[in-house]
Amino acid sequence: MKIKPLLPATLAGLLPLLRAPAAHAAWTLNLTPGVDQVSRDIYGLHMLMFWWCMGIAVVVFGFMIYSIARFRRSRGAIADTSLTHSTRVEVIWTTIPVLILISMAVPAARVLVETTDTDGSQMAIRITGYQWRWTYEYVGMGVKFVSSLDRRSDAARQLDSGIDPYSVPHYLLNVDHPMVVPAGVKIEVLVTGGDVIHSWWVPALGIKKDAIPGFINVAWFDVDPDKIGTYRGQCAELCGRGHGFMPIVVKVVSKADFATWLKQQQAIAKSQAGVAALQATSPGPPPPANAL
Amino acid sequence: MANTDNVIPHAALTGHEEHGGHAGHAGHDEHADHGKPHGFWHRWLTSTNHKDIGTMYLVFSCIMFFIGGAFAMAIRAELFKPGLQFLDPALFNNFTTMHALIMIFGAVMPAFVGLANWMVPMQVGAPDMALPRMNNFSFWILPFAFTLLIGSVFVPGGGLAGGWTMYPPLMVQTGYALPMGIFAIHLMGASSIMGAINVIVTIMNMRAPGMSLLRMPLFVWTWLITAFLLIAVMPVLAGAVTMLLTDHFFGTSFFNAAGGGDPVMFQHIFWFFGHPEVYILILPAFGIISEILPTFARKPLFGYDAMIYATASIAFLSFIVWAHHMFTVGLPLASELFFMLSTMLIAIPTGVKIFNWSATLYKGSLSFEPPMLWALAFLFMFTIGGLSGLMLAMAPADFQYQDTYFVVAHFHYVLVPGAIFAIIGGVYYWLPKWTGHMYDMTLAKWHFWLSTIFVNVLFFPQHFLGLAGMPRRIPDYATQFADWNMVSSIGGFCFGASQILFPIIIWQCVRGGAKAPGRVWEGARGLEWELSSPPPYHSWTEAPGLATLEHGAPVHQTHG
Description:
Distance between the termini of chain B: 26 Å
Shape of chain B: globular
Distance between the termini of chain A: 72 Å
Radius of gyration of chain A: 26 Å
Oligomer: heterodimer
Helix content of chain A: 25-40%
Number of helices of chain A: 6
Structural class of chain A: alpha+beta
Order of helices and strands of chain B: HHHHHHHHHHHHHHHHHH
Strand order of the largest sheet of chain A: 3-2-1-5-8
Strand content of chain B: under 5%
Largest sheet of chain B: none
Structural class of chain B: mainly alpha
């Protein structure tokens, strides 16, 4: 039969597709708690909602499945055509959801207020989204640079590049100049756009803020001191053909390492060539005074 | 007698015989076929008959469903593996934009209008829609609109690629496709507004005597409310896209900060349309489900009044939740709180509806013909979509979900196993009425099971992708997203292929099949089931006299 030799050939052809990726866990199911208090609180809210939804689903689907199984005509069920309305039941199944919603709204409002609390920020970074890269300017520190998709990813992602994405470390999530920040310091990010709307999103920090030309959006984070590491994100607002190719990399280091890095960057910036190059790529006029 | 098509004969209301011609006539058939045009082109191009126009809307919508589906298949093919295999990123963005615009405006909305055209007059005891010539015009705008929209894919500079949400400043970077797309949207909007006017005027003016508003079938009620939503918000969309046009061509700065404008204002205006729009996309589906479940449970809809109040509440609330699509744009804290709370509120009437449907099943006598299968699948999977919607309402959590595949999973659950399954269920429910034939039940069940299984394979993993951190509207992704993307794409290909059964089943049914009685389904109640299958070309030329109403389903009292 023709099918027999076809089947092993098909399976053999499918096997390479099942290869596990080189980096990061595959088959991920859930958010992660992240690396600061805000991201943990967001995760907690998410899990609270998830378990509420699971509970509601169990009750509602349970009732549906019970009814479908029990009241089948094929099993001889006769319809009770007098069961057409009940004001008491309507009140009950309106009131209970209201109470459930209140119990969800309280923690949600608390976390929302927490995300707006930028008091006591110790440093600020102005982040500007362009088509298709980010620039980071450490306000008042004389450091500013462009962060673009790293070269290996950029080469591999071209149509018909012939390069296997799995051979590229952190494919599409790597940049040439990451944003370096110290752990244990409250940092404000001032997010704006240079051409169209982008969005700066780092899941581990619990921050997603749209980068809108002419306006500045503010968010904050304060990475736990024991969460030194590299965290990656992506642009989260469609911004043209390069939308999927302008990632974000945040490298969290100790305060001491950050101080060292900062000195190096300031030295680079001070050199004439560095300053001139940066001025050639600086964004347009500052936004209107009332923009916030 | 000319132009009797859309006038209830005086005789029916006053009891007098008029024109003398009634006495001695053989029966209804002669009058029923009066005015039917001859010739294929004359019939379909100039029809003012609600049944023919309904058919045209449904055929059009089916074609657009497959075109929109083709764009989806291309998207899933590109997303099957990491790396770019087939599509330039700009073309990919064009495909995602076209997929959404075609599905929303070309498939779902015209399908609902088609079902309204077919069923509303028959269900309220009216001979036709109130404004039959405008009805014809409403339909025939659509092929022109979509030729323009699909044509925009091929123009130099590329097609519309800013997403169906069309945010500026990005959208203003579009070339020649921009005016084509905007004009297409204007045409579609005009068609929808005229259709909505027709529905409202028909329902408010042409119900059979004795059918008070609180005795109308649920499908008619949900369409009445939907029609008001349409009239309220389609002009808002028209305004928003016109401002895009003037920003691009006439130097205005509505959405250009450098000129003193605000890109976010577009989002406010668009979503003031957009949120009621998604309720426009689901309310008629709610009506269809409310018709199907009682029929196959052999039990009246539970909580008729509550269902109407819930639907009206949903419609009202839909106007005050729009900024939940904008939680990350930098709204003031008070706005974020308000929109979070109002969005959560919508869960209440929606939940009430789900509970009432479930209570309709409870202590019923259920059988599982194809329409019931689709309605039950709706009940389960729309609930899943609603629960993920509740999660999305929580603003700080939404910071992680916004613009990721979690949102994509949510709205596809409410739109595909939601709206689309309700439409398909409605077609399987009413098709024997329209054609006079039963269809192949076995094939229809195959269609159902394949669709249900693969729609879940397609969309459920997208929840995981969103939570894992995959943004939406990207043609290529990091390797840790590969596994679920492959599963989703396989689901997509199989789901898409399963849909081919649908036109096959319909076509076979149109051509022939076992004869269908007037009351096609044993448990079916309502005026449409009092008519023959198929109904006369002009039905209810005399308004039916209504017997005792059974819980909102008026029963026709025949005159012998």
